[in-house]
Amino acid sequence: MAEFVRWFSDLTIEDVPLVGGKNASLGEMYRELTPLGVKQANGFAVTAEGYRAALDAAGAWEKLHRELDGLDKSDVRALHKAGQSCREIVYAAGLTPQVRDEILEAMEKLYDEYGNDISVAVRSSATAEDLPTASFAGQHDTYLNIAGNEMVLDAVTRCNASLFTDRAISYRIDKGFDHFKVYLSACVMKMIRSDLASSGVMFTVDTESGHPDFVFITSAFGLGENVVQGAVDVDEFLVHKPRFRDGFRAVTRRVLGAKQMKMVYAAGRTREPIVNKPTSAEEQAAFSITDDQALVLADYAIKIEDHYSRHRGHTTPMDIEWALDGKDNELYIVQARPETVTSQADANVMEEYVVTGKGETRVTGRAVGTKCALGKVRVIRSTEQLSEFKPGEVLVSDTTTPDWEPVMKTAAAIVTNRGGRTCHAAIVARELGIPAVVGAEGATATLKDGETVTISCAEGDVGRVYAGEVPFETRRTDLATLKKPKTHIMVNLGNPELALKTSFLPVDGVGLARLEFIINEYIKAHPMALLHPDKVEDREHRAAIDKMVQGHANGGDFFVQRLSEGVGTIAAAFWPRPVIARLSDFKSNEYAQLIGGAPFEPKEENPMIGFRGAARYTHPSFEEAFVLECRAMARVRDEMGLTNLKLMIPFCRRVDEADRVIEFMGKHGLERGKNGLEIYVMCEIPNNVIAIDEFAKRFDGFSIGSNDLTQLTLGVDRDSQIVAFDFDERDPGVMAFLKQAVDGAKRNGRHVGICGQAPSDYPEMARYLVDCGIDSISLTPDSVLKTLQMVAEMGG
């Protein structure tokens, strides 16, 4: 057996001291997971003993000590000089003759397995990396498309030298590792031809919220270095693990990235074996993998997480790199390591950052983390400028690289022009616990050195850079100390981007998920305009519709996919807690404002009590659109398997209207009672209260809408500023209706809750409803904790 080379089949996760974390993990997966269908190319590791042997033979240790002993890493110039000298020392040491011979012998076996024309990837694996509390991700070098034995030997030597990159030296000092007790093991494995297809990174936990129930996949065309480095805005996919395990194969949510360029093999023999090329307009408009491929990756990710969790004795979220081979169209795992940020968070402590003021938005991008920060801008365009950076400033750049990490560690926040949620800047920001806004196009041109900005990653997936000081608060709550009331406390939520984060609130589910927000933000077009674009005369609107439906069979499919993914994200985030989705309740004037909406909407004097809610669903002018809503909700329940989704009918004026809607829904895949489907009705019209016994025969529950119930009880148009002063949910007449509604629902054995604004605004209203015996109170997220504590204290 070779002394300095180990094949993947000879390695296990216990071999970190011998071959480092990355190689030990590759060996473990090759041995244990390949039989389970997780594909991985073969390869071998040059052991840490081979690295040590080279430095011993060259007498390099003393020289390295001279460079590193007493080094002040905060001195960027000194760090750079020391790192450069150390790399030169290790590279000059080269490889011992025996190590060279064993590598060449191993290469012959790789040629026998895959053919003489293959190229390989040569990666670095340090003996202290991929630990649960220290990832070392990106600290050392990787070389791709290496062909020919001499290039392989040179790449192994360069990997050895990369143990002393500036960022690796700095990282070891921060983590308390001895430079001379960490060794390098190079990995040589067959290249996956993702230059002809796609590649990316995935996590078995949502990277921003820390939600453990999702596989989060990023993808772009070409080799994976662009994804890791954040050089492109990636495609994103979410897959819900619990229902995937139960056999439901569906992508929960997808986000299309710009994918501005792709890394491919260089033509012919050049000094640079890989190059970047711009992607075509067609590539940018298309997802870089299919839904089916995303599901294969999710299967791989779950199997990898399960295996490592069994080995460690506890759930171990994983950070995994993958590649799609353009020749055999198979998906391969390139490496896997424990995720080291969200897995270390204290699950019992909820930290909320809340923006309490307003300001001009300078740029937006993808939010990394959920924090806010304040600082002065420092635009860095090249490594030479890093010495100008001052601690506490906001680092603004095109992208970041691992060489920048010593400076990044002193930043208040990071903003980049390019990158997705798994790019280098995002990974480092997460590990440092600072906010970052990545993929903020034009940030380096818009933001100026010295200007004060507020960074907000506390408002969903979109990260914002505000001009000046915008006030924000930090709220910390120890969830272990909260007493749970008997009354169910639920949350109102419309924005899928906030769902995963909001799900950590100690609530019993979602009492109101508004479809209007999803339609307005993620679809933007009137459903009838999507179904009949030929009736849209406005040229700009017609062009916008044509663009948005690209990649879909028709406008209807686009609507169904977007709506189902929005609602599905909310239902998955709270699984298995109930999520009550209220079907669309736009008024005619609001629908007319959607793209292409004007030709399909009547002009009404008072839309607030006009063509809205249940009245639309079976009306000839709208029923085609309602079919799309039914299809979308059926997809969430049947294809995604999210049967915790309940549906709610808004503004249902009369009992016969309820009968028509329920019958219509049943014909279009939403039969009440089938597969446990419950259908609720909004109790927001006086007739809903007066005729509650009849409505109770048709619906499984009631949700009181205090806004509309108040305006219809008091005769106040809440859209009219002139009489707005008379709108008060605490009026005795309204309060009487609230009690009648609770009593009537209970008399009929039906669930009754409230999802209106009143309990969020008025604590006394919440107390009154608890005294009435209401089953649940649904609140805005910012009101949950204080109301929950209040209800618990009053014994409700």
Can you walk me through this structure?
With 796 residues, this protein is an alpha/beta fold. The chain has 4 domains: 5-191, Dna Ligase, domain 1, CATH 3.30.1490.20; 195-344, 2-Layer Sandwich (D-amino Acid Aminotransferase, Chain A, domain 1), CATH 3.30.470.20; 349-477, Phosphohistidine domain (Glucose Oxidase, domain 1); 483-684 and 755-793, TIM Barrel (Alpha-Beta Barrel). The protein is built from 30 helices and 30 strands. The N and C termini lie far apart (72 Å).
Q: Give unreliable regions as ranges.
A: 130-136
Choose one word for the global shape: elongated
How many angstroms separate the termini? 72 Å
Count of helical stretches? 30
CATH superfamily of the largest domain, by name, is Phosphoenolpyruvate-binding domains
Number of domains: 4
Mean pLDDT: 92
The assigned CATH architecture of the largest domain is Alpha-Beta Barrel
Sheet/helix structural class: alpha/beta
Number of DSSP-assigned strands: 30
CATH topology of the largest domain: TIM Barrel
- The oligomerization state is single chain
Helix content: 25-40%
Spatial strand sequence of the major β-sheet: 23-24-25-26-27-28-29-30
Q: Taking Cα atoms only, what radius of gyration do you get, to the nearest Å?
A: 29 Å
CATH top-level class of the largest domain: Alpha Beta
Beta-strand portion reads 15-25%
Q: Main sheet?
A: 8 strands, parallel, barrel
